[in-house]
Amino acid sequence: LQKEDPRIEIINNKKNMGTLYSRCIGVLSAKGKYIFPLDNDDMFLDKDVFYKVKSTAEKDNFDIVEFRAIESKGIKNFFKKRIAVAMFSHHTKGRVLYQPELSGFALKPNEKLNRYHLSEVYIWAKCIKTEVYQKAVTQYGKERYSNYVPTYDDVIINFIIFQIAESFHYIPKYGILRIFSGSSAYLHTSVNALNKYEMRLLDAVLDFSRNTFEGKKIAVNVAVKFLNNYGLGNTIKKEKYKILLKSILERIDKCEYISEEHKKIIREKSSKFKLN
């Protein structure tokens, strides 16, 4: 294919570095204006999705345009689960168009639920402006993305992308078929893998989220979740994870936008782990 199309560039790691590293160095090498991320168990439905989404992005200069995905077992609405509730808390309302499919503005508070209407947290089914994506990867840093994250690695970078992006739009067009192959990382996720992911996500949230009420909720929820997980003791046998967890706990303790009440809960839950 490269012989037929010189635009194709092959990047070959000397050893398996994992998806996070590979995706990041691929993004940094990209030369086009937009990036359409795709996982190994997904496929684009047709090339029309590129023209439709790209034209939407260019028309109003959107940093991110999100579209829909179809599962191999049927259509699924990926806008019901919204775990990263800080993504749009800082955006200007005028730059986020009214989304009838989302039942409101992407950053319009839902008073009943005390949260915002938001985008899906995964990287796929999105068109992302290359300069925004590259800035997120650069800010995250090679020292971080060189660390192997077994699963959900796209959520970490996507969180930073949404902190940088200034505009977002969603269109109700199906563009990706999700096949869920047997090799999918999700199907092989272990307790240890989740703990590594949660520590890396919390590390990113503490360093890159804006000091908002929503950012505080993510930090508290993720911290309590992995401190409650009985399998965490297996993960922190390795010295580097002990160092990472200790650093995270110290930063939570110093974090101005986490309440003393929540800090106390996290201190109590972390007291059973021997990190020295």
Descriptors:
alpha+beta, six-stranded mixed beta sheet, two-stranded antiparallel ribbon, 8 strands, 42% helix
Task: Explain this structure.
The protein has about 280 residues and is of the alpha+beta class. The protein is about 40% helix and about 10% strand. The protein is built from 10 helices and 8 strands. Strands 1, 2, 3, 4, 7 and 8 form a 6-stranded mixed beta sheet that branches. Strand 5 and strand 6 form a beta hairpin. Helix 6 packs parallel to helix 9. The protein is globular and about 60 Å long. The termini are far apart.
Topology:
Blueprint: H1 18-29, E1 34-35, E2 42-44, H2 48-59, E3 64-71, E4 74-75, E5 109-110, E6 115-116, E7 126-129, H3 130-140, H4 142-145, H5 153-164, E8 168-178, H6 191-208, H7 213-228, H8 232-235, H9 239-254, H10 260-270
Parallel strand pairs: 3-8
Antiparallel strand pairs: 1-7, 2-8, 3-4, 3-7, 5-6
List segments where confidence is low: pLDDT < 50 over at least 5 consecutive residues: 75-90, 97-117
The count of helical stretches stands at 10
Tell how many strands the DSSP assignment holds.
Answer: 8
Global morphology = globular
Mean pLDDT: 77
Share of β-strand residues: 5-15%
**SSE arrangement, N to C:** HEEHEEEEEHHHEHHHHH
- The end-to-end span amounts to 53 Å
Main sheet: strands, sense, barrel: 6 strands, mixed
Q: What kind of assembly state do the chains in view correspond to?
A: single chain
